[in-house]
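FAQ: What does the model actually see?

It sees only this:
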Amino acid sequence: MVAAVEAAAEQVVAQLREDCATPAARLDGVAAAMEEEMRAGLREEGGSKIKMIVSYVDNLPNGSEEGLFYALDLGGTNFRVLRVQLAGKDKRVVKRDSREVSIPPHLMSGSAAELFGFIASAVAKYVADEGVNRALNGKQRELGFTFSFPVRQTSITSGTLIKWTKAFAVDDAVGEDVVAELQMAMEKEGVDMRVAALINDTVGTLAAGSYNDEDAVIGVILGTGSNAAYVEKASDIPKLEGELPKSGKMVINTEWGNFSSSCLPITEYDQALDEESLNPGEQIFEKLISGLYLGEIVRRVLLKIATQCSIFGDVSRTKLTTHFNLRTPDISAMHHDETPDLRIVAEKLAGHLKIANTTLETRKMVVEICDIVTRRSARLAAAGIVGIMRKIGRATPGNNSRTVIAIDGGLFEHYAKFRQCLESTLAELLGEEASKSVSVKLTKDGSGLGAALIAAAHSQYAK
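And it is asked to produce this:
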């Protein structure tokens, strides 16, 4: 009986292992498909599953920036106001501080004037609390605005809101220029501050990476969600209208989360998760690799095993049917469990899923499932990065250019086995020679520090 139960569970795991397999040949196909979609998205609007948004950031910070700059990071129920003092090549970031403010729920479904008025009021108080600031030397304050909602950007300082997400429903702001709304609200509050740049957090991550290392050309978010931005030749963007920037470069926000391809290893669990999601058929790549979904995929695998055999006891007595009851930090803790009896695995199963009295063999199986799902995620993320590197000519053995990839997000920062797998997969796909010139760097707070740095790089006083 015990042998039959174990065989049924192993059959599910074996099928998962096969369906999640990412051999180098398959990843090569993913990278090629990513490059192809990127080219299509650069040719024309709507030409690709990934948007390839022109950020209008044509100058990244390089460490020479000086002065006092601000950032506003709006992406959820809280927003941050930051102040960053920069002192050029010698001292870099001298000082930075920030304040977090909660948005009252009624303002999240009120009017644009009320929402932006509240934000501007918080900015005004923040500026007032700093007192007379001699560092400005009579110059107008300048701010980088990280706005983590879908916008149609038309310049470095303008973008119209396409739609709200994350529980916001300020209807009269849709179709309006969010920079103009903020600028008008700050003027009403008597704040003499210019919005020097409108960005998203991925572009900010690239900027923060570039500030610390001028060879940073790709920025990636690997956290709850996932996205990538990179530096493209302006002449290689057919859809870019008007005069090309003097720098000859342009940062592209790929929005790669919406990438999908027949090359991707998709399981029955991924299909069910997608069908039951709020956006079925969309964000397929993100649903395979980002931190929001990894724990949920593992839970679905465990539920399948529980319906096939009695290894976890009576399913109705567990919480295996509760969606998103297992989070990525939980599977990371289980995956990294090095105790002899896998005590942490037992605690997580009991605490989150109400599964008690598991055998050591069962706990080992759970760790293997975490490994299979996480390895697929890390290897696919690496393939996406290689696709970008191929597009900009950084993935060939003869290329001697040093390539720095700036990465932010909890999945990369806190999940050591994910990070190790991503880095080893990059080396595997690029080959020994090409991978020697590639460096992956954790780059934190692109949405805050990165926004202030882009404001500095696009300052009206920049030399």
